[in-house]
Design goal:
There is one protein chain. It contains seven helices and six strands; from the N terminus they run E-H-E-H-H-E-E-H-H-E-H-E-H. By secondary structure, the chain is an alpha/beta fold. The chain has a six-stranded parallel beta sheet, with helices on both faces. Strand 1, helix 1 and strand 2 form a beta-alpha-beta unit. Helix 1 crosses helix 7 and helix 4 packs across helix 6. The protein is globular. It starts with a strand and ends in a 22-residue tail after the last helix.
Amino acid sequence: MKKKIIIGITGASGIIYSIKLLEYLNLLPNIETHLIISYSARQILSLETKYTIKYLKSIANVFYDYRDTSASIASGSFITSGMIVLPCSIKTLSSIANSYSNTLIIRAADVILKENRKLILCVRESPIHIGHIDLMSKVIKMGAIVAPPIPHFYHKPKKIEDIIMYTIYRIIDLFGIDNLNNKSFLRWKGTKKDNF
């Protein structure tokens, strides 16, 4: 049986992360993706990339209108493995923290939380103030995982895509998807004492 994963893309910088996530998940036969793109994310898509909505729809299994709060994924009776919001804007974080379900992304995230399923929020903002920290603290207490898309460098990336993909692998890892056979995902093995 396929794992159904909801992917929410919101209007923060870094939409390339979500595109690469969708491309990667599209290659996995046991994953079914359910995609929602906010209005703001559509604008960011054209500002930051060469990709189109048509392309994103083509690499997702199911696509939803972000305004359709009566869609199947807006109900707890629709079984999913969880949801990833990438990138997650502060507006979206605030709405989720306060259960303000005015769009399908927020409603789907709220359902994931109430059903005790996995919700990963890749908050994309810097610097942050105490209000942002309070919102992150609130969603963590509600059961979400806050995983900002922070670059890693110990795998010695050679190009920007290497940095992006390492973050994607870490997010997928959090979701319980097996990356063990992925040779480009190097796990930390510690340091040798003679390096110091």
